[in-house]
Write a structure and sequence with these properties.
By secondary structure, the protein is of the alpha/beta class. The chain has two domains: 15-377, TIM Barrel, CATH 3.20.20; 402-750, Alpha-Beta Barrel (TIM Barrel). The strands form six sheets. A seven-stranded parallel sheet has the order 1-5-7-8-9-10-11. A seven-stranded parallel sheet has the order 12-17-19-20-21-22-23. A three-stranded mixed sheet has the order 13-16-18. β22 (679-683), α27 and β23 (714-717) form a beta-alpha-beta unit. The structure holds glutamine (GLN) and zinc ion.
């Protein structure tokens, strides 16, 4: 009987998002928010029950984040929130308020979900608070459902925490063990029968200490309670060794993304543990090949009775349902499975695996077979021209011919920018007016001509501002873009968009990732018109602005019927076409953003070199058309570069701009230690804050950067794009940045 690790909670029409936002604006009270939440939980349980799922979760619901829920459950709210209680304290930790900062946020392993980081210390106190779980458990029971209770396991909870006194959070394991025990006892007393512990921290090259800590499960056995430990996103071979000896009943392994997990399965067969076999992809949106999945399950060296068919991870990472997709091409739709469609797959796979009658499910099964068959041959997916082009890449299409240092010499002469050149990362304020123009055009309220005229006005203003403040290298401002990935996705062949495919990113924030379903190509120029228009309005150089292939894929749902390497490279070729066209149109500097380069790194060390190879090769393909005279920039958002310098170097961009304002010189030092020879744009102020940095402050920041890299290698820019800021903030900030640079420059030149 099928198992679902967890189910999304934001609501198929984002009901929770809208209710939360109303509550925060004071438009509804907490009771109303609670009733929306309750309705959603009931609906979600019902869906799973109707789909024949046996292991349905409770406590996978959260008002904001399951890690914050764990902080409350364990009673370890940081002291600074102790003046608050209940839901006020909860939202203060999540979002901050006038007197409190929010907890820091970071990515949940390699997904685009962000969790909040518990702040602990040696003397952190803990006390269990099971009321949320007990309430949700009772709600489910009242609907005739016996749910498992989802908890984040102690090893993952601590591994994903930070301490304010610098101790290793895992040192607190003995301290939280009795709290977990007490929680389990209380749950058992309330009738709970199964508890699922999520321990995904163990898939990330676990340390000896983490593996040692895992042995606390030995002390978590509570009479009448069945415990399962689930892992996902990668293999967990080291952890399985230990878990097999623990008093738990089931272990969850990801058999989609953790191929090596297969090696552990024989060991299961010799134990009494259930294998929670994660075979339906919980984080991508393609239909399963049901026949393949069944065949795979049958091939496992383990008795059927020991296997529970499961999702590979929580369905939190995929949208709800295809039911509301009315505009999506019907073929593409037939190749997709969102959360609810995955529930059906689980049921059918389970039935076939166990040799049961399909009954009414035969229709869905036949549809699955047919969709998989068309997916293999459809001309919507398979574009021979694209495939051939990739197959026959010439050396010139793979990389630039001249070494970067030599290119830089040519460019310095040709582009003649001053020492410490000033620039920005690309976007300028996306004001309500800008958004409205885009929306009006999309809704057909204004014509294309009107839209373009408006966009040109925005560009004119942006160019004028940049000239007035005295920046050296200008940009057009990106007003035509809603999002740096979606904008390009919408113009590429092989990429589709759902209407309602929202996925929670954090709290009430959702994203709707592009769907890369087929061979990718660029039918027509995407940015040339805007950028050449901007260039026509100024004598200064306007930098063209594109999103790189690695980031395009890392923020999309990527097809699973072609090696990822090929998809990266097809995307790279599409971008290369744009680079060529921009260059042809006279654009002298082109920036290819790779904001998501670092976050796409694999969880396991053993897979990093391959990711780096493919990412570097793809970036180089995307930028290969640039002649020695054309300068390529790239930009990466907050990333630690220490362990990836050879890779950054290999990308072969003349200039990389990075975020350094919030971390001083720490990130820049990697470039010095590596003896980096190309140029670096070091962010000198934080764009996340509305604060305008003063000239004096910026002089200090610039001087600081000069402690690390020589002036001839440095560019001066803000940390990232300015789209979330207001003009009133941007203009004085940039003015101060330029003035500060001139000040520092004059002293360098005198020397
Ligand atoms: N060019 C983009 C911008 O300025 C880069 C954004 C990003 O790195 N996240 O908005
Ligand atoms: Zn950035």
């Amino acid at each position: 009987m099928p198992y679902v690790i967890g189910y999304p909670r934001i609501g198929e029409k984002r009901e929770l998002k809208f209710a939360l936002e109303k509550y925060w604006r004071g438009e509804i009270g907490f009771e109303e928010l609670e009733s929306v939440a309750k309705e959603l939980r009931a609906r979600h349980w019902q869906y799973q029950k109707e789909a024949g799922i046996e292991y349905i979760s409770c406590n996978d619901f959260s008002y904001y984040d399951q890690m914050i829920d764990m902080i409350v459950l364990l009673g370890c709210e940081p002291d600074e929130y102790k003046d608050l209680s209940g839901i006020d304290r909860y939202f203060a930790m999540a979002r901050g308020d006038a007197r409190h900062k929010a907890l820091p946020m970071t990515k949940w392993l390699n997904t685009n979900y962000h969790y909040f980081v518990p702040q602990l210390h040696k003397k952190s106190s803990f006390s269990p608070n099971t009321s949320k779980i007990v309430q949700e458990y009772k709600e489910a029971k009242a609907l005739g459902i016996e749910p498992k209770v989802n908890l984040i396991g102690p090893v993952t909870f601590l591994s994903f925490s930070r301490t304010i006194d610098g101790i290793d959070p895992l040192d607190l394991i003995e301290k939280i063990l009795p709290i977990y025990r007490q929680i389990l006892e209380e749950l058992a007393q309330n009738g709970v029968k199964v508890v699922q512990f999520d321990e995904p921290a163990l898939v990330k090259d676990p340390t000896q200490k983490q593996l040692e800590a895992l042995k606390v499960y030995d002390q978590l056995a509570v009479a009448g309670l069945e415990l399962c430990v689930v892992t996902y996103f990668e293999h967990a071979l080291e952890a399985v060794e230990i878990l097999l000896d623990m008093p738990i009943s089931g272990i969850g392994l990801d058999l989609v993304y953790g191929k090596n997990n297969i090696e552990a399965i024989e060991r299961f067969a010799k134990s009494d543990k259930k294998l929670i076999a994660g075979i339906v992809d919980g984080r991508n949106i393609w239909i399963s090949d049901i026949d393949e999945k069944v065949k795979f399950l049958r091939s496992l060296p383990i008795d059927k009775e020991q296997v529970i068919v499961s999702t590979s991870c929580s369905l939190l990472h995929v949208p709800y349902t295809l039911r509301y997709e009315e505009k999506l091409d019907s073929n593409i739709k037939s190749w997709l499975a969102f959360a609810n469609e995955k529930l059906d797959e689980l049921r059918i796979i389970d039935k076939l695996y166990r040799g049961k009658e399909l009954g009414k499910d035969s229709r869905l099964y036949e549809a699955n077979k047919a969709a998989n068959a068309t997916r293999k041959t459809s001309l919507q997916i398979h574009n021979e021209a694209v495939q051939e082009r990739l197959q026959n890449l010439t050396q010139e299409q793979k990389e630039r011919s001249m070494p970067a240092t030599k290119r830089l010499r040519i460019q310095h002469e040709l582009l003649s920018y001053p020492i410490l050149p000033t620039t920005t990362i690309g976007s300028f304020p996306q004001t309500p007016e800008v958004r409205k123009v885009r929306k009006d055009f999309k809704d057909g309220v204004i014509s294309e001509a009107e839209y373009k005229a408006k966009m040109r006005e925005f560009i004119d203003y942006c160019i004028k501002v940049q000239e007035d403040v005295g920046l050296d290298i200008l940009v057009h401002g990106e007003f035509e873009r809603n999002d740096m990935v979606e904008y390009f996705g919408q113009m590429l062949e092989g990429v589709a968009f759902s209407e309602n495919g929202w996925v929670q990113s954090y709290g009430s924030r959702c994203v709707k990732p592009p769907i890369i379903f087929g061979d990718v190509s660029r039918p027509a120029p995407m940015t040339v018109e805007w950028i050449t228009y901007a260039q026509s309005r100024t004598d200064k150089i306007v930098k063209g602005m594109l999103t790189g292939p690695v980031t395009m894929l890392n923020w999309s749902f990527v097809r699973d019927d072609l090696e990822r390497e090929k998809v990266y490279k097809q995307m790279a070729l599409a971008i290369a076409d744009e680079v060529a066209d921009l260059q042809e149109a006279g654009i002298k500097i082109i920036q290819v953003d790779e904001a998501a380069f670092k976050e796409g790194y694999p969880l396991r060390q053993e897979n990093r070199a391959e990711y780096e190879r493919v990412a570097v090769e793809s970036f180089k393909i995307a930028t290969a058309p640039a002649k020695p005279q054309t300068q390529i920039h790239t930009h990466m958002c907050y990333s630690d570069f220490n362990d990836i310098m050879p890779t950054i170097d290999a990308m072969d961009a003349e200039v990389i701009s990075i975020e350094t304002a919030r971390n001083g010189n720490r990130l820049l030092e990697a470039f010095k230690n590596y003896d980096y020879q190309k140029e670096v744009g070091a962010g000198v102020y934080d764009i996340h804050s509305p604060r305008v940095p003063s000239k004096e402050e910026l002089i200090k920041e610039i001087e600081n950067r000069l402690q690390v890299l020589p002036a001839k290698q440095l560019w001066i820019n803000p940390d990232c794009g300015l789209k979330t800021r207001k003009w009133e903030e941007v203009i004085p900030s940039l003015k101060n940045m330029v003035e500060a640079t001139k000040d520092v420059r004059s002293r360098i030149i005198k020397l």
